[in-house]
């Protein structure tokens, strides 16, 4: 497959969210989620192949067969183009926590994307790249006082809040902050809910507005986050509508006009066609072009997920029956697949290398079901991580064409969001993972 094919695939998925040839993951509630998109092309395959062929498992040093990522920086650029095609009015602030990979951050900064940081060290990391503090939003509504003082010293002005105590801290340590009031949203359909932890209920907005007024603070706008993996986007519409209510309410309180709306994160490539359409409509209805209000967002996964492919080695196997095995690989929930626990992701295992052959382009090498599109998958497997914890399970049930053995390789496409950023050294397994970079941009 060539580079051109990649672009075509990208366009066609975008055009109508065409069913991907790969998999259709059904959630336990049997709601079919959008089929995962992946980019697959020769440059990724070349990097995977070269690395794997360099490992001689008969004689290699401990760790030479460790799992590794291939990152296509070009994908980040394509995603950026795609974002502005769908949401031309919305300036993205990339949520650094999603994947703080230095080369991804560099690329985003060069493309003109700004940054959402949640802690001192994330702010530090972005400033060290030479990014202007004006391009950072400290989007954590509950900050340590020492971190607020740090932000003040670093001249990071934009920040969010959702409670009165935070306003008193800000008054004391960073009074010239440009503040965004974070409202709660209805995230009941989201896979990762955030409004249980953050956001002011609409009924309590007046209390915060009064406090802003009493303290003489600088309220510039409203922010929200509808959660990640939402299956319907009415929450996005409602949140924009509620934001409008807060803008109007601030006026009634006699506060200066608000001029910034932050529509948060949670955007996924696979559902972006739908979410961006809902958002565009809501913005045009409640914050029309000529209203003079700047719109920003805090996408994380959108810019990182599909740029990374993870390859992992089969280190052990327990055969249960001729057609049933437990496979143990050298990465798992304590490593780069913590997204299974923390982010409710279901990584898709596919056969990369078996018996001396590569199967990268066999999009049907595995299946979540024993029979799919008429094909019967003979091998039933469960896949486990390397630590001694029973929780360290990648999938309890998957089906494979091949009967994999130790030494074979599996890969997981689109695994760039909330993966390496939260890996731990638990049980003595290194958390530093190699990333092989390729760049298919501007070719
Ligand atoms: C995590 C987070 C984001 C990014 O969410 P995604 O689902 O990765 O887009 C954005 N804003 C805030 C405040 C967050 O906590």
Automatic annotation (TrEMBL):
GO BP field: putrescine biosynthetic process from arginine, via ornithine
Cellular component GO terms, alphabetical: cytoplasm
UniProt KW keywords: Decarboxylase, Lyase, Pyridoxal phosphate
Cofactor section: pyridoxal 5'-phosphate
Pathway: Amine and polyamine biosynthesis; putrescine biosynthesis via L-ornithine pathway; putrescine from L-ornithine: step 1/1
GO MF annotation terms: ornithine decarboxylase activity
Keyword tRNA processing annotated: no
Subunit structure: Homodimer. Only the dimer is catalytically active, as the active sites are constructed of residues from both monomers.
Protein name: ornithine decarboxylase
